[in-house]
Amino acid sequence: MAAPTISPTSDTKSKVITTFLDKPTFSCSRCTAVIALQDELISKAFSGRDGRGYLIHSAVNLKMGKKEDRPLMTGVHTVADVYCMGCNERMGWYYHKASDHTQKYKEGKYLLEREKLVKENNWTLDDEPQIGFRTRGVYGHIVIRVNVVLVAVIQCGWFT
Ligand SMILES: [Zn+2]
User: Fold this and answer.
1) What is the pTM of this model?
2) Cα–Cα separations (whole angstroms), residue 87 to 19, 33, 102, 108, 146
3) Top-level CATH class of 10-120?
4) How far, in Å, is the centroid of ligand 1 from the Cα of 133?
């Protein structure tokens, strides 16, 4: 995966997440920042502003724009446009509220423009960096657990 182009504005510097281990993801088509796990996809049968859209349960690396009431095909919704943290591209919108009861299931979800997303399945031949990352993760976990056990042992010692 190419390194994401991070804009020099201060609020975007350290927030861009670039990997979700080896899970299939949707990434920004412009800067490759990870936007959502493919597992979070609810429906592909939505309309974005200019084309097809995906309804997605949760997303990362997105900045929320201003809330506004917008008439959509299925009625008026309170939405906020969302922008990629990596490159400020408008990716779609977030549903704050739906006025129609039949549309309530969209609240708290994201509508992302299909053309702004790239599917990343991480089917690479060179697995080396991912294996390295995983190994460090497991090692870190073991170290933390050992520390917890040691603290427990020390505390038991004090109280007996
Ligand atoms: Zn981007």
Assistant:
1) 0.66
2) 17, 9, 35, 23, 41
3) mainly beta
4) 24
**Ligand 1 centroid, distance to 73 Cα (angstroms):** 27
Sequence-distant (6+) residues with CB within 8 A of 127 are none
Q: What's the CA-to-centroid distance between 29 and ligand 1, angstroms? A: 7
| pLDDT per residue as tens digits for the range 34-61 | 999 999 999 999 999 989 999 999 999 9
CA of 31 to the centre of ligand 1 (A): 4
